[in-house]
What does this fold into?
Amino acid sequence: MDVGIGLPNALLDVDGPELVVWAQRAEQRGFSVLGTIGRVAYGSHEELIALAGAAGATERIELMTTVLVAPPRQAVLLAKQAATLQALSGGRFRLGLGIGGRDDDWLALGEEPKNKGQKLEALIATCRSVWAGRKPEGALLPVGPEPPHLPIVLGGYSDSAFRRAGRLADAFVAGPMPPEAVAGVYDAIKAAATEAQRDAPALYAARYVAIGDDVADEADRNARSYYGFGGDALVQMVQDGILRSSDDVREALRDLEQAGVVELCLWPLARSVDQVDRVADAAL
It folds into this structure.
């Protein structure tokens, strides 16, 4: 199983240059991919721009949004931005999309948070049409660049999200959940793919990590800041699921591989770049 690591783009107090240093260290240590999480109405660094900075500072490591709150964005522009990042990175980018868990991410962009799944599917269709060189309505010319291949990765926690991934995605990223739940999710995705008469998408997963007692408080503070909108129960669930030791990381790798996961992205909850080394020592 491949192992990736997240950029700390959504952590408290992270400065922009830290993301570049982190990306370079992650590549040096042999991680397969750099992932990002993100919201709009939060003090995070925007994912596509953060990954563009990482692309310019690296040569091998792949790049993926895990996942971007997509439907509130203008679809043609998002398609162009993603294709540009794919070109800039030399074909290393995967576009991970989702609907998000907060209405204010939609409202902040002037979009009503209604019919979210339908809007996501329409956005996917628009992206693939733009990438295939078809002209959007009203355009005199196609919108480039046209990537030879740009994988779409979907995320989510609902039955409709699993069915959508089976019908439309190149891969699905399972957020933090028990390995047995990941296996059940993948069964639902594969069933939807079979019904749609297409190959099943690849299965990725993501878990939060903060290795060391010295970063425990920081990790809990970041989890509370990011997930506090959902109340204490959600915050506690996230905190309980953090991989806080090398043994935790190794156990997660073993269990998720058995569930069918082909790549695990370890999202950081502590900002120091030495977390890259601690995670690499545990996972690689």
